[in-house]
Amino acid sequence: MTPFIWLMIIIAALVIEFIRIELYGACAAAGALVGLILCIAGLDDIWQIAVAAAVAAALVVLVRPVGMKYVMRARRDKELLSLEGCDAVVTCRIDNANNEGIVRIGGRNWSARSNRPNGVIREGEVVTVIAMRGEVAYVDIKREKGYKR
Predict the structure, then answer these.
(1) What does the alpha-carbon distance between residue 67 and residue 116 come to, in Å, rounded to a whole number?
(2) 57's torsion region: left (phi>0), alpha (psi -120 to 50) or beta?
(3) Are the C-beta atoms of residues 115 and 108 closer than 8 Å to each other?
(4) Last-in-domain residue among 27, 42, 77
(5) CATH number for 112
(6) Which domain holds residue 132?
């Protein structure tokens, strides 16, 4: 194979990776990079392909699971951050003293606590998400515009 073919494989794998981050494309690009190096070193085509495929497969098996933990954590953090400032409806009374409370945010239920110490918020109240910490939404009663505390 020519170096041009290996470069095209690397580019195609990276484009696929950028479209949908699953780390398969990155593993394939790394394998193709090894194939490119072997091509430049002058190895036969069969060895280039075999070693490139072996490297890509090894990376998928050994490195991808660890890398996906970080990718999924970043996606989760981004999702939680996007919920801050959203309105929610209290579906189960929030009582900080008893560690109780559930709110519905965008069609999904979340554990909730009042942003105020020993806060209690009735079921059915509309609240604003102040912060997300793990799986818990910290909320405060939504105030009308122009309202001063």
Answers:
(1) 38
(2) alpha
(3) no
(4) 77
(5) 2.40.50.140
(6) 84-141
Q: How many domains does the chain have?
A: 2
CB 25 within 8 A of CB 17: yes
pLDDT in tens, 14-56: 999 999 889 999 999 999 999 999 999 999 999 999 999 999 9
Q: At which of 56, 77, 98 does a domain end?
A: 77
Please tell me whether residues 52 and 92 are part of one structural domain: no
Quick one: which of 56, 55, 82, 70 has its CA closest to 21? 70
Query: For strand 108-114 and strand 100-105, is the pairing parallel, antiparallel, or unpaired?
Result: antiparallel
Task: Give me the phi and psi of 26, to 5 degrees please.
Answer: -65, -40
Same domain as 30, residue 94: no
Query: Does any domain span residue 149?
Result: no
Q: Is residue 8 within 8 Å of residue 16, measured between CB atoms?
A: no
User: Is the whole model's pTM more than 0.90, yes or no?
Assistant: no
Residue carrying structure tokens 């070193």: 41
Question: Do 9 and 67 sit in the same domain of this protein?
Answer: yes
pLDDT at position 142: 80
Specify whether the CB–CB gap between 88 and 127 falls below 8 A. yes
Low-confidence ranges of the chain (pLDDT < 70): 144-149
